[in-house]
Amino acid sequence: MNSFKTIVKYLAPFKKYAFFNILLNALGTLFSLFSFTMFIPFLDTLFNTNNGVVSDPGAFEWSYKSFMAHFNYLVYQIGQDHGKFHALLFLGGAVLFGAFFRNFFLYMGSFFMAPISNGTVMQFQRRIYNKILDLPLRYFSESKKGDILSRFTSDVQEIRASISGSLDMLFKDPIQIVVFLSYMIYTSWELTCVSFLVLPLIAIVIGKIGKSLKDTSGKGQAAAGEMLTIMEETLGGLRIIKAFVAEGKMKERFKKINDKVYRLQNKIMRKHSLSSPLSEFLGILAFTFILVVGGYLILVKGDNTFTSSEFIAYLVVFTQILNPAKDLARTYNTIQKGMASLDRVNAILEETMNVPEIENPVRISDFKSSIEFKNVSFKYAEKYVLRNINLKIEKGKTVALVGQSGSGKSTLVDLLPRFWDPQEGEILIDGVNIKDYKLTDLRSLMGNVNQESILFNDTIRNNISFGVDTATDSQVEEAAKVANASDFIKEKDGGYDYTVGDRGGKLSGGQRQRLSIARAVLKNPPIMILDEATSALDTESEKLVQEALTNLMKNRTSIVIAHRLSTIKNADMICVMNEGEIVESGKHEELLAKNGTYKKLCDLQTF
């Protein structure tokens, strides 16, 4: 029920369209009723059930009874003046008139339904995307990308179907049922009460199917997310899969989840398909029941509350009330599927794992004096990754972090832009705890160049100017020169308008890295974070990138993570980390003289 309320809440911005949808569906239903009630004078004229005489109804009144009386008299007059065949032609034209406007108004109702359905889905997708950007990196380290993509795509499409069904359930189907039911009660309230003996049975049966369908659909969407995760991992790791001849293993892994999705989708489809024939049978059961009871009243008891032609029209209208009733049954099941998907989407939208920001944060636009880590400790789950880190970095200085893999270097620099928050201690910039700064201001002070060059499937120009909307062409080109990238850019077809491909796949590793550096140069931040920026490059590329990094670090405060110790010999301070602690610190020559951990690392690399 809460999920259904959530969908209704998303409809609020489209209430204008909803109003027109209701109005037009109501008009369409009224013209439907008009077409069906034309069967009464049609049958009366065809079979001469009124003995050829229709009396003048007198003054017109605004009521259904007065309208039908005047209409019957008009048909009678046409029959008297021009013959019964002309009267039948007139009635056929009246039926077509009603059918045309019925379908016209129902189409216009659907016309106004489109922006409601698509607009609501647009809101869901926009909220999911915005939420993904707002969530911290920790959330994605604990989640599967494929499952998130599944919620964004297939789950949202299920919600789309559920929204359309919800609107039909709220507006279109109830209007049709109310209008047709009103006519049935007006014609014979006793017979209409009898027909309601069957309807509760339909509701109970469909309700049980719908509840079961929601549970199975939730499992199916989760399994589809797992399958998409494997697909995403396969595309990203195809080179490794082929190199390790692991195609067979991956095929078997995919086959297992694919079979699971197949079985669950079969269950979902079978349960969903069951509601239509079941409601069809129950509807025919109700129709037959009314046919027998009505026939008994007319033929056996001689009930004269309605004529034979009115009874036939009553039956025709009853068949029309069955269609929206069956639609409600099918819609209910579609909504149940959508509710399962909505629960999965809401798991992202309602996630509270956000980076907290104080109510009135301190604004900062420039870095003035120092960065300081005070007694900082950080852990993932129960395991400490950093312990009691104390480090002060003066403005304009270059500090290098070295140590074996897993010693906590990357985690330490990730704390500075608040990708994570430490459980103990504090980090200060210019003497103020970074938690007190506005998050966007804090991150604007920093530029990042990582080991993995992250580029977007866009032009070189747009990749360099990413995040700097006001950048001019000359500024982009100047940044490329500083990053030693301008020469290879000029060689590409289209130059700066060359598209780099998915994740920069059309460029070499060194070229991608130099574009990442150019992007950081253009941002021109006072603090640079370089995370093993040259470790994955060949010697020639490393030389070019190292020159670019040297240019980048000029007159900036830099924190450098390096495995190749030769690249950080000139750092103002080198911190040696081991198992989450800083075990040594000093300049290159000082650390060598200590003959400790740093000396061993240097000897290993020299060897």
Description:
The chain is of the alpha/beta class. It folds into two domains: 2-349, ABC transporter transmembrane region fold, CATH 1.20.1560.10; 370-606, P-loop containing nucleotide triphosphate hydrolases (Rossmann fold, 3-Layer(aba) Sandwich), CATH 3.40.50. The chain has 21 helices and ten strands. It has a six-stranded mixed sheet with strand order 6-7-8-3-9-10, sandwiched between helices. Strands 2-1-4-5 form a four-stranded antiparallel sheet, with helices on one face. Helix 19 (539-553) links the parallel strand 7 (527-531) and strand 8 (557-561). The chain is elongated, with a radius of gyration of 37 Å.
Key phrases:
607 residues; ABC transporter transmembrane region fold; Rossmann fold; six-stranded mixed sheet; four-stranded antiparallel sheet; 64% helix
TL;DR?
By secondary structure, this protein is an alpha/beta fold. The protein has helices spanning 2-11, 15-37, 39-47, 64-82, 84-134, 137-141, 145-187, 189-195, 199-236, 238-243, 247-300, 308-349, 409-415, 439-444, 460-464, 473-482, 486-491, 509-523, 539-553, 588-594, 597-606; strands spanning 370-380, 383-394, 398-402, 424-429, 432-433, 446-450, 527-531, 557-561, 573-578, 581-586.
